[in-house]
UniProtKB/TrEMBL annotation:
PANTHER family documented for this protein: D-XYLOSE-BINDING PERIPLASMIC PROTEIN
One cellular component term from this protein's GO annotations in UniProt: outer membrane-bounded periplasmic space
Keywords assigned by UniProt, alphabetized: Signal
Every Periplasmic binding protein domain range: 49-308
InterPro entries reported for this sequence: Bact_Solute-Bind_Prot2 (IPR050555), Peripla_BP_I (IPR028082), SBP_2_dom (IPR025997)
Molecular functions per Gene Ontology: carbohydrate binding
Compartments in which it is found: Cell envelope
Native source organism of the sequence: Humibacillus xanthopallidus
Stated name of the protein: D-xylose transport system substrate-binding protein
Signal peptide: 1-23
Amino acid sequence: MRARTTRLAGIALAAGLGLASLAACGSSDNSSSNSGSTSGAAAGGGKKIALLLPESKTTRYETFDKPYFEEALKAACPDCTLIYSNANQDAAKQQQQAESALTQGANVLVLDPVDGKAAASVVASAKSSNVPVIAYDRFIEGANFYVSFDNAAVGKLQATTLVDVMKKNGKTSGDIVMINGSPTDPNAADFKAGAHSVIDSSGFKVAAEYDTPDWSPDKAQSWMEGQISAVKANLTGVYAANDGTAGGAIAALKGGGVNPLPPVTGQDAELAAIQRILVGDQAMTVYKPIKPEAEAAAKAAVALANGQTPEKTTDFKGVPATILDPIAVVKDNVKDTVVKDGIYQVSEICTGEVAAACTEAGIS
Ligand code: GAL
């Protein structure tokens, strides 16, 4: 990940706004301890773009979305200013962060909502100030633009891979448990619906299902722990909606003495998940290349800030949109996906007990 250490401008925000920060494009400083300039205006009078991300337990946001967005914004508009915040799964905090961005004169909000429905009030308040809103990754009704992946396709990829692996394990029937995402995340509903569209006609039965509050890996783990004695005998697979919940489920299964582990799905191609896939603890993940997603959002933000119409590939629920394709990752294509795209270095993946698995998978 590229990092620029020179701070071009920065302003500390009021306490209580979490990781909120305002900095000229190119600065990657998001701490609230910025000092120095009291003016957030970029040189040349460029526009102010606010990026509001939902959480930091899922590694994508701080590791990929934020820096890729920052980089793309700098390329598309060198004198634009980025106002950045992360709500740490708190919808009320995100609302404050959005209000704060509007108060600071944001020209566009790029919002990945903690709570898709609650975000409607942010859109209303932005609209009353004539500020367009881009729904980033998660859909928001009434947004001016939407950038995401095909989320139903994510669920279908997860479930199709799960069913294939269970069949390869010699099973044609048996129980699946489903650990879905957060009930406030509209994507979670799409992942779940996409997965059900495959599982429900697969011959396998959903024995128990859980919507994980806040996508919390800990809550996924405790729920799975509570299910083990009831489902253990006939458990053939675990649908986990992302890599965080997959990690929780796998810890619970191991702790509960389930051996061999049933295949477990995931999403986000997190480093820990790629390692679990290589050593055989997790069956798959879904790789969603964040760079093109962040680039599409940054370009759309600059267009909207200048009163132009962003380039779209489609319409989604009446909102002009760019929708990208997700990719399933299993042991056999780790090399041709996340390694080839330089998402992780081989040296980051192939540590400790993973080294032998890397050699076996031809990753060196
Ligand atoms: C979804 C997002 C996923 C995953 C999850 C947990 O909305 O599309 O990539 O990160 O949230 O935050």
